[in-house]
Write a structure and sequence with these properties.
7 strands; globular; disordered N terminus
Length: 165
């Protein structure tokens, strides 16, 4: 992955980690509509299970800080993302820069015939170093992949139904 844009102050979080997850869906809607729905940050709570998303700093554009808290009951995981590049309606890049989740991520929209859009999400998370990371990733990866794919499928359905814009 090339440098994801303005990454000043993000340190090693801006470099790809070894924990790589990708998911792809086809959405029956034009790319501009799909892209706009994706960068409507607070509405991500509608399609990412058990997650509340909000803009903490900025207007949601480049340089903004987005917070996603995923949890059930008192247990939760806080994911902080700095938006480092927006190239509407094609690509948005973020850097996960929290204490636990770190590394770059991207979402790309590719227009297809018939007002369809291919959406590809790609994340490169830093794993705990040493044996813990090497042992944990093969166990965690399938769940991460299924979770991301499931969320993207829900996103696509909501966009197609006109319930997400």
């Amino acid at each position: 992955m090339s440098a994801p844009g303005p990454v000043d102050g993000l340190g090693d979080a801006a470099s790809p980690g070894t924990g790589e997850v990708t998911a792809t869906v086809i959405v029956n809607a034009p790319a501009a509509r799909v892209f706009a729905a994706f960068v409507n940050w607070e509405r991500q709570s509608d399609w990412i299970p058990f997650t509340k998303v909000r803009v903490v700093e900025g207007d949601g554009g480049e340089g903004s800080l987005i917070e996603a808290i995923t949890g059930v009951g008192p247990a939760g995981l806080r994911d902080e993302m700095r938006v480092v590049r927006i190239d509407a309606p094609y690509e948005v890049r973020v850097v996960h820069c929290g204490k636990v989740l770190r590394g770059p991520g991207s979402m790309r929209c590719t227009a297809m015939a018939g007002d369809r859009t291919q959406v590809v999400m790609h994340e490169w998370f830093h794993l705990p170093s040493g044996a813990v990371g090497r042992l944990a990733w093969p166990v965690v990866w399938p769940g991460s992949k299924l979770s991301l794919l499931g969320a993207l499928k829900r996103f696509g359905r909501l966009v197609e139904q006109g319930r997400l814009s």
